[in-house]
Amino acid sequence: MLVTNGSPIMSSANSSGNPWLNDQEHRKLHSHILTIEEESGVDGLVNALKELVIHSTQGKSDKDGKKTRSFLKTALDPTYSSQPTGVEWVAQSLVKNLESIFGITPQRTRAIKEALSLPFSQKRVLMRGLVERLLGEHTLVNDRTNTFEAVMLILGNLGPDQQDLADEVTQPLLKLYESDFKKPFINYVGHNFRTADGSFNSINFPDVGKARSNYVRSVVSQAPVNANLPPPHVVFERLLKRPEGQFTPHKSGINMFLFYLAIIITHDIFYTDPKDPKRNLTTSYLDLSSLYGYNRKDQESIRQMKNGLLKNDQWFDKRLVIQPPGVAALLVIFSRNHNYVAEKLLAINENGRFSFGPGKPLATEQDLDEELFQTARLINTGCFSNVVVHDYIRTILGTSQSSDFFLDPFKMPAYPVYGNQVSIEFNIIYRWHAAIGKQDEDWLNTVMNTLGPSLRYQMGHAVPAPAEVVVEQRQQQPGKPGDGDPNGTDQGTFDALLPLFNEHFVHATEEELEKGLPVAGAHRDVKTGVFDNADLAKLLRRGYDQVASDLGNGLATPAALAPIEIAGIMQARNLRCCYFNEFRKFLKLVPMGTFEDFSEKVEVQQALKELYGTPDKVELYAGLMVERTKITGLRLPYTMGRAILSDAVNLLRNDRINTQEMTPQNLTNWGHEFIQGEADQHGRVFPKLIQLHLVQPGNLPAFTQEELNNLFVVPSSQ
Ligand code: HEM
Ligand SMILES: [Ca+2]
């Protein structure tokens, strides 16, 4: 409906984002035109036009710019074009000032002269065309005003001596039409779902971000080699190790629950191949890959292969079994969410799209399973990304989970041409072992002491020097593109550990183990394989109630992690990572000039001096861990805190599936609405997931509403 109250441009749908004005606003703006004319005459209008040009070209929109734009929008309205006010002034001003507005070229000067010699009615139409084009960059064009056609008519009737004017008006149009379609093309029909191994996220560069790819290098080291690097165990002892009996609680009261989520995120994007430290066995996208696995074979091992369902409370990655058990409990929420979503999709069966048989959209029951599985997976990863944006990043920044402000990586339209692949630097930046809370440190000590050498072997696997790395040539059997390694991910070392782990920490029966991976402190129903909800809630509460450690300044990493940290230091050296100051310069941060700049702990400053001699020789790994911390939010060491945000934003925005495929058509209306989160929770979906999937005895919620509002801060600090 384009005509309301005799005003053809207007629409009353302004509140829904339609940039055109409603009738009342329109009248207000018309009087605004008159005011501008009255107050500042032609000069005011010309200035307004100049502003418009500046705003259209620079994309700024301050208050004045908005006023100008609205005012010019009004100028486009033919309702007023019969009046000698407003439009007429604008027309004359625009044409007269083409020169100063658009800059001068000889052709343009001729064009302006030609324009000025046109009859006024034609000048006005041309003006409208120009204004529409300028506005069109930011607002929608109302094609029913027929401006375009009118301009074409005028141009068509111009004589050969007015060719400059015609060119001046039409050439930019060609550019406009051409740029309607962004190149390279990134969205091909039929690539709506994630592949099992993460490939084809970028169709043009299908291997980017695929499981089993090498890490990317962000910074090439150009500095002279430090030929006197200290032995890695000395680096750990002198700079990283938390002294026995010492614990500094996190100054913002951040709890371990936040770090359980961080561990799920790091396992999602980092899985260094124990046989080759250059290689990452997981996908570089935030796609819940520790839940779904890293290739088709992994994925099928945890699927029921019926109705899109996962095996109850199951996930793929066994690395999570030896983490604090709250981590697995958290991942189980997403496992449950997958099945909840798959069941919901089938029950709603929007437009019959999940029906199979003759004449139905799907041919067989297997097709139904696949379609439901992939759609549910898409929705589940959408929920995960909601949690990362609304709960996780907000905590990192220190903005409340219960506020409407959040750094939305999707606010600006993303155009992910290249996909994303994580870097070795990002891997190191994300080793937040210093944050481990007291209770989890105790747990870690017990696990290390009990599992002893076998675990130590697994954790601190010897990292071979680059020359020794044998690049494994797995046989690539023909499979579907995107299915990945046909042999599945080898987690044999964990299989070997599991019996001992179970015996000491879980005490699950054979029947329970047959149903799925063990979680210390939780038991599965032997018939259904479903964990006891109260057990899971208890494990999450252990994270919620447990304050994390301060993470900066060095000397904060639990001693039990020594073999893991030493392996990390060696990995960074062998992969030729840049020096710490080089990394800071890459991020446009001032390099550290003195050792006092690094850490506030005097003994760390002294140790740095003794181990490295000069700040420029400090290696990336050590430098990141010993730095002073930011003063709000997660209080990460400065460089880490800066880098983590670039990495997180890149991770989310360079994911085609996250940015282009999260549509109602792909997810169904219900699924699309689900991942938007709850309006009364400021768009968060996490509280709802906890409420839905962790119902406690007596139908009570696992966390109260108040707790849900601030999940990542220990209650005593709130
Ligand atoms: C009690 C808690 C934790 C335990 C027991 C633990 C254990 C481990 C182990 C065993 C490894 C070495 C894996 C291997 O060599 O294959 C590792 C690596 C790593 N950890 Fe932790 N971790 C804990 C907490 C965290 C936290 C809070 C973070 C950060 C959010 C984190 C980030 C990493 C990263 C990025 C790696 C390197 C992963 C790779 O390259 O494969 N960890 N951790
Ligand atoms: Ca992943």
Task: Please tell me about this protein's structure.
With 718 residues, the protein is mainly α. 50% of the residues lie in helices and 1% in strands. A hairpin with a 2-residue loop joins strand 2 and strand 3 (276-280). The chain binds protoporphyrin IX containing FE (HEM) and calcium ion. Residues 259, 262-263, 266, 270-272, 274, 323-324, 427, 430-433, 435-436, 440, 444, 459, 461, 564, 567 line the site of protoporphyrin IX containing FE. It comes from Absidia glauca. Heme b binds at residue 433. Residues 1-23, 471-493 are annotated as: Disordered.
CATH homology superfamily of the largest domain: Haem peroxidase domain superfamily, animal type
Distance between the termini: 52 Å
From the 3D structure, determine the CATH topology of the largest domain.
Myeloperoxidase, subunit C
List the total number of helices: 29
Oligomeric form of this entry?
Answer: single chain
Query: Which percent bin holds the helix content?
Result: 40-55%
Question: Overall pLDDT, averaged?
Answer: 85
What ranges have pLDDT less than 50 throughout 5 or more consecutive residues? 1-21, 81-85, 460-471
Count of strand segments: 3
Short account of what is shown:
The chain has 718 residues and is mostly helical.
